[in-house]
Amino acid sequence: MIIQQSGSKLPKAFLIGSDSIAIGAMRALAEHKIEIPKQVSIIGFNDITSAQYVTPSLSTVHVSRNAMARAAFDLLNEQFQKRNMVPRKLTIGTSLIIRDSSI
């Protein structure tokens, strides 16, 4: 992550690919005295348990692990039965959980 250098502007928000990395980014920003969410908002992805306990609590995108597991099982089962299954795209719904790290 590139921290604000003299004369440059910080983005208004970061959408980070995992909550664990987002928590690390929050720490790096805090070490550089960049206030969350006053100066920059942070949103993670995965909705890990610790996201709600960091300070400020981390906004995150929740993906149902049960839905992913069920879809993976169904696709794997279909692959074993048909053997020549055509690749396809699968979409699983998400929900945004707003907490204190974003405005």
Automatic annotation (TrEMBL):
Transcriptional regulator LacI/GalR-like sensor domain residues: 6-102
Protein name as it appears in the record: Substrate-binding domain-containing protein
Classification lineage: Bacteria, Bacillati, Bacillota, Bacilli, Lactobacillales
Domain of life of the native organism: Bacteria
UniProt source species: Pediococcus inopinatus
Record key words, sorted: DNA-binding, Transcription, Transcription regulation
